[in-house]
Design brief:
56 residues, two-stranded antiparallel sheet, 21% strand
């Protein structure tokens, strides 16, 4: 299962640079994770300052 970013996202971009497969991009008002590309490594979850990222 891919990770997801909730509405708690403040668009800081910390997660985007941590993703080893480039599955995270800036969306409309928050960052989004492409579920088809996500390898479920959790690197993004570890660096999110607001706890907005979780396993689906």
């Amino acid at each position: 299962m891919a990770h997801v970013i909730s509405n708690e996202c403040v668009s800081c971009g910390s997660c985007e640079g941590e993703c080893p497969v480039g599955a995270i991009s800036e969306g409309d008002g928050k960052y989004v994770i492409d579920a088809d590309s996500c390898v479920d490594c959790g690197a993004c979850e570890a660096v999110c300052p607001t706890g907005a990222i979780s396993a689906e």
